[in-house]
Specification:
By secondary structure, this protein is an alpha/beta fold. It is built from 19 helices and 16 strands. Strands 7-4-3-14-13-12-11-10 form an eight-stranded parallel beta sheet. Helix 2 packs antiparallel against helix 7, helix 15 crosses helix 16 and helix 15 crosses helix 18. The protein starts with 13 loop residues before the first strand and ends with a helix.
């Protein structure tokens, strides 16, 4: 769809916030009615997702919650500034009453979420959707966030894939003529992950009551379209509208989501508490507010997940300027067994089980290669060890990124769980974690030349794929997504600004990294239409600049993925 000269789409695609189902009551009056404008092109079947009713619902969500979203994002900036200036995070005094009150519990598992021992993650394109539904996992994390490059096609066509899958009508034929269909008699329960609060959807504009038009919230768009179209059908199918919530940094952000859920339930005419959320604890501030996050979401909460890769990135981001003692070594050395990661994950299990919430483990990045038995065997060994540790620590389930890893992970959880669906009864009273342990990131390993080169290579190769619309990419037999790329680029930025040197004695400077960028561009296989030059420019922006962009995808999205 081509915008008009005013920058607004034609009137037929501007949906007012009062165009709603009858009986929901009036919204506050103002000089302008809130509206959603479609700025992106309307391709085949997009009108099935971007219906007037669905867009009206998005306008209502934005009218009620967009302002609070901006407030919460301002809180993030303020908190990051405080940590950067020497004020370490701590367990909050003003919410101690919540932690001290032993009586409250979360809603827990909804129908279809009682057994979550193995969950498969992945993007929502038709082929990956079908593969996930045929995988044999208990749960599929249908990812519109870090495993999806947020192109307009991916955003809307991902919604179409989910729409069709939930109605049993999804099929896909590849360019080579291979047909994919859902053949499993039992498919995983779908838990959809919308984008985080920080991301926008430029192809939809929200006009507020003052007449100002801004890009829509990626979170509200992803959540709103999925819930509006599918909530009732999911309930009819014996499950419900379930969500993974990413990038939370505070209980206030959790409260915002809880209010979104409650409003949606009222608006769609479903019972309060039908929506269930599993929150990823993947930021350092959130690790200090796990109980408060559960409390604010208690009527809608199923559990917490240990989002390990973003958690490492969050630590680097918050402590990037605080001196040498907060500098991490090679990415490969920051494993789940180092003390600060053990403290974080054990606290998560204890917190969850204390409140009746599931504790879901994270993603091991190792993946098999069906053409290389040695790589596959090594991946199986690494993943088995990772899942054995998680099951032994008390986690109720875990993530994998490849169908071949499901039996490996399931075997480790079966060995601990047996026929039980979870181990919520394991309270982990033996765990005591202090604030100091959560931020003691000393590992005692060096930065190596290979580690620096690896970070530059992975970040550029991942961003090249992301710019082509791929959000989850196998690189050097590891599954990379936006979170792992964030670690790579943020480490480079920190190493430069903290004047670090490699074990071999080379100072890590901008000039050194420029040499590595040139080396990587010479190593990769170039093809017509590749995006390596653009990817290198993105990497320079987010790793070599004087300022540290809070997320590497923000500028790249606006510059390269928006269809103008």
């Amino acid at each position: 769809m081509t915008p008009t000269a005013t920058g607004l789409a034609p009137e037929s695609t501007r949906i007012r916030g009062d165009e709603r189902h009858p009986g929901t009551g009036p919204i506050a009056t103002g000089s302008h009615l809130p509206a959603i404008e479609v700025r992106g092109p309307l391709r085949e079947r997009y009108d099935e997702i971007l219906t007037p009713e669905a867009l009206g619902f998005l306008a209502e969500l934005h009218d009620r919650f967009a302002g609070r979203r901006h407030d919460r994002l301002a809180d993030r900036m303020r908190r990051r500034y405080e940590i950067g200036n020497g004020h370490d995070p701590r367990f909050r005094d003003d919410t101690a009453r919540i932690r001290d009150d032993a009586s409250w519990r979360v809603a827990g598992a909804g129908p279809g979420l009682e057994d979550r021992r193995v969950e498969i993650t992945g993007p929502t394109d038709p082929k990956m959707t079908i593969n996930a539904l045929n995988s044999g996992a208990k749960v599929w994390l249908a990812d519109q966030e870090d495993a999806t490059s947020p192109t307009w096609r991916n955003v809307i066509e991902g919604q179409l894939s989910l729409f069709d899958a939930i109605r049993g009508q999804l099929s896909f034929t590849s360019a080579e003529g291979k047909r994919y269909e859902v053949t499993a008699t039992e498919t995983p329960t779908i838990v959809m992950r919308p984008r985080g609060w920080h991301l926008v959807e430029e192809h939809l504009g929200f006009t507020d009551r003052s007449g100002r038009t801004l890009a829509a919230s990626g979170s509200l768009v992803d959540f709103g379209l999925y819930a509006f179209h599918n909530a009732h059908r999911l309930i009819e199918n014996g499950a419900g509208p379930y969500f993974y919530i990413a990038k939370l940094e505070s209980s206030e952000e959790a409260k915002l989501w809880d209010d979104v859920f409650s409003f949606t339930e009222r608006r769609l005419g479903i019972a309060h508490g039908t929506i269930r959320a599993t929150v990823l604890i993947e930021t350092l501030p959130a690790a200090f507010e796990m109980e408060e996050i559960l409390y604010e979401l208690r009527d809608h909460c199923a559990g917490l997940n240990a989002g390990r890769w973003d958690y490492i990135f969050s630590i680097i981001k918050n402590y990037r300027g605080r001196g040498a003692r907060f500098v991490l070594p090679d990415r490969s050395e920051v494993t789940m067994t180092v003390p600060f990661m053990r403290a974080y994950t054990e606290l998560l299990v204890k917190t969850c089980h204390k409140r009746g919430a599931f504790a879901i483990g994270g993603m091991s990045a190792f993946i098999p290669n069906r053409r290389d038995p040695e790589v596959t065997e090594r991946a199986f060994e690494k993943v088995a060890a990772d899942k054995k540790r998680e099951a032994g620590d008390g986690f109720d389930g875990t993530w994998v990124a490849h169908p071949d890893l499901i039996p490996v992970a399931r075997a480790e959880f079966d060995a601990v769980l047996g026929d039980r669906p979870n181990q919520l009864d394991r309270q982990r009273d033996d765990v005591e974690v202090t604030a100091a342990q959560l931020i003691d990131v000393h590992i005692g390993r060096p930065i190596t030349a290979a580690g620096v080169h690896g970070n530059v290579s992975v970040a550029i190769r991942y961003m090249e794929a992301w710019l082509r619309g791929l959000g989850a990419v196998a690189i050097d037999n590891l599954m990379e997504d936006a979170a792992t790329a964030e670690i790579s680029r943020s480490q480079v930025w920190q190493w430069i600004h903290q004047d670090r040197s490699t074990e071999e004695g080379t100072r890590i400077t901008r000039e050194y990294i420029e040499e590595l960028i040139a080396q990587v561009l010479g190593e990769v296989e170039r093809r017509d239409g590749d995006r390596f030059d653009d990817a290198a420019e993105v990497f320079r922006d987010v790793a070599l600049g004087a300022e540290f962009p809070s997320f590497l995808t923000l500028g790249a999205y606006s510059r390269f993925l928006v269809e103008r």
